[in-house]
Amino acid sequence: MLPETTVVKATSDTLLKAEKQKRPANMGQIIRWLLLFAGGILMVLPITYMISTSLKWPHEIYNLALIPEEPHLENYTYVLEDGRFYGWFINSLIIAMITTVSNILFDSLVGYTLCKFRFPGRYIVFIAILSTLMIPTEMLVIPWYLMSQAFGWLDTHWGIMFPGLMTAFGTFLMKQFFETVPDDFIEAARIDGLNELQIWWSIAMPLVRPALAALAIFVFLGNWTAFIWPLIVTNSVEMYTLPVGLSSFGDEADVQWELIMTGAAISTIPTLVVFLVFQRFIIRGVVMAGLKG
Amino acid sequence: MANLSLRQLIKRFDKTEVLHGISLDVEDGEFIVLVGPSGCGKSTTLRLIAGLEELTSGEIRIQDTVVNHLEPKDRNIAMVFQNYAIYPHMTVRRNIGFGLRTSKLSKVEKKARLEEVAAILDMTELLDRRPSQLSGGQRQRVAIGRAMVRDPAVFLFDEPLSNLDAQLRTQMRLEIKKLHQRVGNTIIFVTHDQVEAMTMADRIVIMKDGHILQVGTPSEVYHLPANTFVAQFIGAPSMNMLPARVSQGGVKLASGTVLDIDVPSTQDRNVILGVRPDDLHLTNDSALLEGPVTVREPLGAETLIYVDTGGDEVIAKVDGRHPPVVGQHVKLTASTEELHVFDARTGTAVI
Ligand SMILES: Nc1ncnc2c1ncn2[C@@H]1O[C@H](COP(=O)(O)OP(=O)(O)OP(=O)(O)O)[C@@H](O)[C@H]1O
Ligand SMILES: [Mg+2]
């Protein structure tokens, strides 16, 4: 809400000024637009190359022209007819969906508990969870691998997804959002006879829906595009996730970029769907997260 | 039979004690108002009764059951919060219905009860709206409805009107009072607005710093305040307080005027004489107090005049039609029975 009103105010101010001195205001406007435009191009360019490459024949992929010489859909036919692609797609979908649901449930449970209950050690627990944010994935991969090996989780769905079932970031995010739920709601519900789990589920959760939508998108995208850990924990081609599978297109000598790009283009579809479904929440969510710091 | 009884309630948050022994008996159907300045422990008392806060020591009985260790939902109470706390993601119907979750009524009876309450509160057409589509007063009514459906032994209200604008507040005040006359449940109502307290209460409980200072009907606390704090807290503008000394034959003011008031002989010599602005009248005869008018505040029917009586400024409420002008020398008097005498050291009423 806030940025919007500021923008409206800014433009009306500019209009007022423009009446007096037209040129400087317009120059400022033009520079702003140019900067935004440049930023937009920078973001869209890689995606354009991805799609453009997926329409090229192998011999022209190192030709950086945006428009393919002879655009064609053979790559799509090839990827979609290659049986492996579906398997990877399904693997990725299962993992991204389960981790998303799991994060929504458990991050918010822990976040809610840390936010709304007073118990000894609560602060220490919170700091401990937060501090894990400082450890990069690359460092965790080895312990995860040893763990998976010990438990026999290597090369299984469970092995791929267990590290992402809960995240410190999600817990932190949810804790911050539950701060915005007034205690009165919770106490009213207690008087109305709900138990603590029911209060969490039927009172607190609906009130933080924007945060849940944002979290769902973050987690889904994160797991959908995850590469390093799935690459390490999987062995058999059938267990690959999409990013791992796509990178394996072609043999060592000859990377088939046009096929990888085709697969990548197809694999953006679910992320688009997820985003379109949740976007009306996430935009609000990001604004709120911004205001809350 | 006492409907609610509090025995020596003590509440500590960590090391700070905020309630120092609250005792109160409330009759069935009484409308009790807790008043006091901010931070005096009104909300804490209410939350202890509701079971939202754990008692440090003492005993709470509701309908002769000790409820110290009962969950809020098992205490047979309902609470209305300052910011309504109606669930924004549910319709009015579901919000009110929520109050019936734990009830043992059948589905049909529940529905009938819900509709009855909606009718009493004049909300039947609003049942399918969401809170965001309601005005502040309507939201507050939903909150009251949610409490009402349960038909609790005790209603608890924590400053339910303080978020409303002045006009709506007056209107809701009346509605709550009518509602009480109609349903007859016991009500404990917290406010720091003394007008609300006076107009609504059967009995007023005045609190300060975690103590109860006085319990009484609006008339009792107005006419027989137990101490200077109550005297000044109740009534607007506040009671004038004048330092005085006990002397032969009565009480002697700083101005030298001697008043014919009987003070117990055991009384310390230093006292405070209290007189309400409403009880001071203009006179031409012998004056209790006199001096020039320094400020005039017209209120319409009446006008407040501030009179400099040689050191102490007193406020008097005079007729609004022909008030004295600023600078005019006025004489003020009051009948002896309207005068209050307090001990200067302890502040407690002497007579
Ligand atoms: N959870 C708490 N932890 C520590 N101290 C508290 C807590 N709740 C209340 N207090 C303290 O207890 C005292 C009484 O608070 P309470 O909320 O009962 O006041 P009140 O009379 O309702 O005031 P107000 O009119 O401002 O609502 C205050 O000094 C307050 O700081
Ligand atoms: Mg309070």
Features:
heterodimer, A: 293 residues, mainly alpha, MetI-like fold, 2 domains, 0% strand, disordered N terminus, disordered C terminus, B: 351 residues, alpha+beta, Rossmann fold, OB fold (Dihydrolipoamide Acetyltransferase, E2P), six-stranded mixed β-sheet, five-stranded antiparallel β-sheet, 23% helix, elongated, binds adenosine-5'-triphosphate, binds magnesium ion
User: What is the number of helical segments of chain B per DSSP (H or I, 4+ residues)?
Assistant: 8
- Identify the quaternary structure here: heterodimer
N-to-C terminal Cα separation of chain A, in Å?
15 Å
Beta fraction of the residues of chain B? 25-35%
| Number of domains as seen in the coordinates of chain B | 2
**CATH-derived topology of the largest domain in chain A:** MetI-like fold
Strand order of the largest sheet of chain B: 6-7-8-3-9-10
What overall geometry of chain A do the principal axes of the alpha carbons give? globular
CATH superfamily of the largest domain in chain A: MetI-like
Number of domains of chain A: 2
- Structural category of chain A is mainly alpha
The number of helices of chain A is 14
Average pLDDT, all residues of chain A: 85
Q: Please state the average pLDDT score of chain B.
A: 90
CATH fold group of the largest domain in chain B: Rossmann fold
Order of helices and strands of chain B: EEEHEEEHHHEHEHEEHHEEEEEEEEEE
Q: Brief overview, please?
A:
The complex is a heterodimer of chains A (293) and B (351). Helix content of chain A is 75%, strand content 0%.
